[in-house]
Amino acid sequence: MEETDGFVEELEGVLPGRVTKNVSAFLRDWWPLLWITDEVQGKASAAVRPINASEVSKLLDFASAKGIPVYVHGGGSSVTGASIPSSGIVVDMSGMSQVLDIDEANRTVTVQAGARLKELEAKLNDKGFTLSQFPQSMDLVTVGGFISTMGTGQYSTRYGSAEDCVLRLEVVLPNGDVVWTRNRGAPRSSVGPDLARLFIGAEGSLGVVTAAELKIHKLPKIVWKAAYQFLEFEQAVEASKALLELDVRPAVCRVYNELESMFQFEEHSCVMILLYHFNSERATSAVREDVAAVLEENATPIDPALVDRWLEKRFNFRDDIDAIKRMGLTLETVELGVKWTRLYELYVDFVSTLVSMKGVSGVGAHVSHLYDQGACIYFTILHEPRREVYSSLWSVAAKTSKAHDATISHHHGVGILKKVYAKDEVPVKLLEAIKQAVDPTAVLSPDRFP
Questions:
Q1: Of 11, 25, 70, 403, whose CB is crowded by the most CB atoms within 10 A?
Q2: Strand 208-215's sheet: what is its strand order?
Q3: Domains in the chain: ranges and CATH
Q4: Residue with more model confidence, 86 or 5
Q5: Given pLDDT bands bounded at 50, 70 and 90, which one contains residue 6?
Q6: Sheet arrangement for strand 89-92
Q7: Which helix (H) or strand (E) holds 334?
Q8: How far apart are CA 439 and CA 449, in angstroms?
């Protein structure tokens, strides 16, 4: 695509008061590669801050006619470069942050895509409800960004992820059409495919999500917390799987290897923390007994205050980054989703390869999200701040995930970083056909996945 000279002035005429040439705030995100090198820089000629879907429609109609690329920016919390533009126009979604409706009777919330999850959660809590989606970047991430990268939160074992909380979406298509993915607000429908799934995880490449109707839950009356200590990481992983056989699933079950247990809790062995939600004292008592029966054969109960410590610091990722930088190191996180039968061997394979690499100082790991079919194992890699080390560890991640039939991105999305790896996991020709049908002029994120 070629950008037309002087298009910014024309755009200001289409959307007066919404356009700025000051785009510096949109040219970086939390991609760790950018802490190491300034070689990867974003680029854009203008940013537009719309306040409703009609203005997004005008923008895309203009951009399509002119052949100008458009990139969508939410909270800028991506760790893969997903929100970094390469050219053209940035859509700054921060002007679309309204909670449009909280339907307490039917347990839904309708919200504009630029609303931050933290602010939405606070408003729901005031009404006695919760979205129950708590990504680590809670204070930064927007509803639209969370949906567009198919994100998940720390309570997903009980409440699911982005794809589980979406009922329907308002989307502006590349030609400027504004559509809801369903015209009616029923809790479920078999009238055709669920078109919302087309945009969940598409990272703004097929349409701009401008609003969402989401499922909400009553706040629990009882929160039970527990912590256990294991001699071996493999034992702890198997125990987490066994918990899924009980009648009530944990909201949170996290299993830390020795290095991460030391970093998080100053404990010298593997640690499991648990958090359950209940509305009944009798159910609470029964599940506590069941959990003890499952875990105490191979584990020792320890102070449940460890759960409170995790809750207090779980969003303080900036502090962790600063502490590691003071050590002369940097960190990268790799979150691989894998079946239960391959999880521990993947863990051993990945860690043993990384610790033998020059420039890698340590590898922490924890199991963070559980499913009947498998789990996400989340690695934190401390390494020297050199690009060649960074590139090597991702090459190892790609090789390891392929060898163990795992996904290279459980919840961080694709972005610039994982585009080349993602093509091994999905049918690219099908995605290209969908892109061609929906966005024939390739106006939205034209150089991104697929």
A1: 70
A2: 99-103, 108-112, 208-215, 166-172, 178-180
A3: 7-94 (3.30.43.10), 96-218 (3.30.465.10), 222-306 (3.30.70.3450), 317-411 (3.30.300.330)
A4: 86
A5: confident
A6: 19-20, 46-48, 89-92, 70-73
A7: strand 330-339
A8: 13
Pair 277, 251: CB distance under 8 Å: yes
Rounded Cα distance between 119 and 104, Å, is 18
**For residue range 67-76, what is the model confidence (pLDDT) as tens digits?**
999 999 999 9
**Three-state secondary structure call for residue 14:** helix
25's tokens: 């705030």
Amino acid at 159: Y
For the chain, what is the mean pLDDT?
96
CA-based nearest residue to 218, from 342, 284, 127: 127
Q: Max alpha carbon distance in the chain (Å)? A: 71
Q: Which two tokens stand for residue 434?
A: 């969908």
φ, ψ for residue 383, nearest 5 deg:
-155, 165
pLDDT digits (tens, 9 = 90+) for 342-393: 999 999 999 999 999 999 999 999 999 999 999 999 999 999 999 999 999 9
Dihedral of the CA atoms 151, 387, 30, 331 (nearest 10)? Answer: 80
CA distance 287 to 104: 29
Main-chain phi, psi angles of 17, to 5 degrees? 85, -5
